Amino acid sequence: MTQVQSQDQSGTGRRFARVTGELPGEKGRALLERRQRHVPKGVGNNTPIFAERAEGALIYDVDGNVFLDFAGAIGTLNAGHCPPEVVRAIQEQAGKYIHTCFHVAMYEPYLQLAEKLAEITPGSFAKKTIFLNSGAEAVENAVKIARKATGRTGIVSFTRGFHGRTLMGMSLTSKVKPYKFQMGPFAPATYKAPFPYPFHKPASMSEEEYAAFCLKQFEDFLYTEVAPEELAAVIMEPVQGEGGFIVPPKSFVQGVYEICRRHGILFIADEIQTGFGRTGTMFASTHFGIEPDLLTMSKSIAAGVPISGVIGRAELMDAPQPGEIGGTYGGSPLGCAAALAVIELMERDRLPERAVEIGEHIRSYFSELQKDVPQIADIRGLGAMCAVEFADPATGAPAKELVAAVTKACCVEGVIVLSAGVHGNVLRFLTPLVITGEQLEEGLSILGGVLRRLTAPQPTIGV
């Protein structure tokens, strides 16, 4: 895909990012005024810009500025903005029919996508898939299916996990603000078990000892909080997203999986953010050597077209009776067509392998930058799902204010990057996997410059 390159007239030599004047600009300010009049303030915005168009890893705003997108619509655009093949697939489908409701008049793209997913998702067993609209809907339906299939009610999620903003999604989510504050009561029969945080492991423990300790905590949880006979499912993000891109020890994930097997508890892998190439494989569960009973997906499945799904063992998926799961817009023809084109693009261009290269470059860059920026406390990730955690080097306290300042300053310089973590002190990277090497290097260079400037020692003023 041809990338439009822009030469910064200020003489910095930038080829892509370009911001002239204030943010937002004149057109953006007019739109912002309308937004403030008509859209609730509870609908948060990470940047003050209004997009006019986007391509690959670039966003062009209404005031003529160009941004390198390191956020990817919160992990939705692994295939990039407006891949031509996906755009054509949407256009062709829209010319035939936009919506018939699968419950009223079925259509082949739904079947084609279900068949393709059965091929590429983990698990060597027969699978079936239901398509929905959003990640939260996928989680809700995975819980319904698990309860119906097992006859049990309990659902276990993990500390720092994120599973959506609906009632069940909030109930399973661990971060209180901004997702749950003053919005209870929450769904009953939901429980939260401790999740590993390798960066914060006791210094006296080896990685293996820490993994064993965390697994023992989970085993104890089944004695102290809820009996395994009451549990329908455990739901886990293979790599925690909103929680700060926490990569758990492989032995912990496998241990929880085996405990579920032993007690007849279903294992739900929430791959809404980790799926479709982000971690270096099509699905992150593969890294951990597990075959989830149910797997939820959304975000990058269709390059931004709203669609989600639950895929799982055929006998489990068949537990609900006709009409018990579904929805008017679930599995829209446009979403199915877009998803099929995205998967073909990912396989053809080997985007999961590209994710490994991107991740290695990001982590290497920050490892070098850490020599100049002692507030960089941890660099982690799997594939291109990377994060950098910041803390006060003297006290170890989370450096939330620094991260907030970095995201704001980067936007002003033409790079969109997001924070994460329960303390807001983590920078997360969700660059489109089609980002070029030059674009990635330019964005990291801008980010590094911002960090050096914001963390530079302040000169002492003599009396």
Account of the 3D structure:
Keywords: Aminotransferase, Pyridoxal phosphate, Transferase. Residues 1-20 are annotated as: Disordered. Pathway: Amino-acid degradation; 4-aminobutanoate degradation. With 463 residues, this protein is an alpha/beta fold. Helices cover 37% and strands 15% of the residues. It has helices at residues 26-38, 72-75, 84-96, 108-120, 135-150, 167-172, 207-224, 250-263, 314-317, 333-349, 351-369, 400-412, 437-455; strands at 51-55, 58-61, 66-69, 127-132, 154-158, 190-193, 231-236, 266-270, 294-297, 308-313, 376-382, 385-390, 415-416, 418-420, 426-429. Strands 4-10-9-8-7-5-6 form a seven-stranded mixed sheet, with helices on both faces. The protein has a four-stranded mixed sheet with strand order 1-2-3-13. The chain has a four-stranded antiparallel sheet with strand order 11-12-15-14, with helices on one face. α3 runs antiparallel to α10 (333-349) and α11 packs parallel to α13 (437-455). It is globular.
